[in-house]
Design a protein that fits this description.
Blueprint lengths: L3 H16 L8 H11 L1 H13 L2 E5 L6 E4 L17 H18 L12 E4 H16 L8 H14 L17 H14 L3 E3 L8 E4 L1 H10 L3 H13 L7
Antiparallel strand pairs: 1-2, 3-5, 4-5
Helix pairs in contact: 1-2, 1-3, 2-3, 4-5, 4-6, 4-7, 4-9, 5-6, 5-7, 5-9
Length: 241
């Protein structure tokens, strides 16, 4: 029978997953994470606790527990939740996120290796441009992911690659480099990426294991697979300069 201490520890573990905190050694979170990894009975308790909340646990890398909502969960994230001006803006943002995933992990076997991938805004933007023709050929009825990605590819092709800001470095709103930057910054907010910093050059991001686990969860969609094929076949074209 489950005791209150176990239930509390399960709640601590799941709650920490919402905050994306790193588990400090010896902390309540760290201890609960160790129990999840090593105690099958406790792991089953946590998994059932999460399932009741409409969540699934994707993994427990060094950065902590990684949660994902199941279909229909109140915790499910939708592009419509983003504060964007219109549907096209949300579709373009979604395309950028798929491109980051495909370029970082172009094959299933690349999802097995822990550790971060470093990508730049320019590299991802160039990758999407090169992928426009295959994306325009995607099949799918209206309101499918494939149809939205198809429309996003057409819209991407119409936008300029870069527009300078009036008084600051970096891309301004209204260009595709800015769309990619916004995608990376959302991943930073979700602890799925870190800014690489001046040492590696501005506009570069280090993707974390959290992002890798999320990509493994969504792998298989036609749009993502089309991008992964381009990344696999023409990956050398997107090498960093």
């Amino acid at each position: 029978m489950t005791d209150l201490a176990d239930a509390t520890a399960a709640g601590i573990l799941i709650g920490a997953g919402f905050t994306n905190r790193n588990p400090a050694e010896g902390s309540d979170y760290g201890q609960a994470l160790d129990r999840y990894r090593n105690n099958q009975q406790f792991r089953q308790l946590v998994d059932e606790f999460a399932r009741g909340l409409g969540l699934t646990i994707l993994g427990t890398p060094r950065s902590g527990v990684v949660l994902a909502p199941v279909t229909g969960s109140v915790f499910a994230f939708r592009l419509g939740d983003l504060r964007m001006d219109n549907t096209e803006a949300r579709m373009l943002f979604g395309l950028a996120m798929l491109a980051i995933a495909a370029l970082a992990y172009p094959r299933d076997d690349t999802l097995d290796a822990p550790g971060g991938q470093i990508l730049s805004i320019k590299r991802v933007e160039q990758f999407v441009r090169t992928s426009i023709e295959p994306l325009k050929a995607l099949t799918g009825d209206a309101d499918t992911v494939e149809a939205r990605v198809r429309s996003a590819a057409l819209a991407w092709d119409r936008l300029p690659v870069f527009k300078p800001k009036a008084s600051q470095p970096g891309p301004a709103t209204g260009c595709t480099q800015r769309i990619v930057q916004d995608g990376f910054e959302l991943l930073v907010d979700q602890h799925m990426a870190n800014r690489a910093g001046a040492r590696l050059g501005e506009g570069r991001y280090l993707l974390t294991d959290r992002f890798r686990l999320m990509v493994a969860e969504i792998a298989g969609g036609e749009a993502l697979e089309a991008l992964r094929r381009v990344a696999t076949e023409r990956g050398s074209e997107f090498a960093e300069g």
